[in-house]
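Ticket reopened. Same input as before:
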Amino acid sequence: MTVFSVYVVNKAGGLIFQYDHQKQNVEMEKTFSYPLDIKLDLQSDQISVVFGQRDGIRVGYVVLSVNGKTVNGRKLEDGSDAIELIEDESNYPISIKFGRPKLSSNQKIMMASMFHSLYAISVQLSPEPGSSGIQKLETDTFILHCHQTVTGVKFIVISDTKQVGVESLLHRLYTIYADFALKNPFYSLEMPIRTELFDTHVISAIEQTEKTGSAI
Amino acid sequence: MTVFLLHIYDRNGNSLYEKEWCRRKKSNLTKEEEKKLMFGMLHSIKSFVSKLSPKDSKEGFLSYTTSQYKLHFYESPTRLKFVVMTDINVGNIRETLKKIYSSIYVAYIARNPMCDLAEPINCKLFESRLETFMKGLSFFEDSKE
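Engineering reply: fixed in the latest deploy. New output:
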């Protein structure tokens, strides 16, 4: 039972809080000899696999590190260019670590506003009158639960398919939001929540849900 | 329990077939606009889910639930999309959707030389088979108002 991440979205669709609880990284490190049988290309500032699959490395995976050095964008941590390094035959054998692309903070903001609009569309498409938006979105790898408060703030929890008690966690998060964000005199509405007390309470609520299946 | 409606889209977003059994809310959109909106939403949900997924997913998006209805989704290998809306008490009906595809769509449309696969479905046999199949489902019950 795992909770992957928590999002809080304000009534305009802006992301005001995000927390990744479990680092669920699929990573694959392999030593390659020349020529590289996987086609790499720079896509949205990450070096990703565009053609060729082998040993669990799939199209869409990104290069995380080369010879143990972390890759940032197309540069290695020591400042050298990763693509040039991979293309140069004299550097082989080379060890490259691949992994599923992680969401950047910009992408997380995009995901939040995307969900905000999906929520609105699902209300419009309802065959029954008086429907709310998406409360639970099921996939084969995770379940997304969403609770929208009367003031329009959305609490979103992404957990694995076996996690129970997510509804109670959502209500606990709302209580924490009311207690440690709204009652904080230094917090301005609709703005990102940067309060240590809020963070620690969110983390402990998630941990409790994972352990006992209930946040209360 | 109730089945509200069924939609079938091809991979380009054209609506191939639609059937409504029970619909209380009249939407302020036209039929055409509504179908486009639904396809657009499903397309966005698919990319949303694949970006958010912690692991590589095989089937991807399965269903979503609101306070009033549940939308079930199945995509065939040829990216034909089957969408069924039911009430919220219906469980996982993936196998049912697969069956609509494999034993009704494939049998009466894909293998029918008279049917153009890119055109909206206009086949009496398909419609009557689908109707009997849907009415035979345990969760169909009193969809007729």
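The radius of gyration of chain B is 15 Å. The CA atoms of residues 10 and 80 of chain B lie 5 Å apart. Please confirm and we'll close it.
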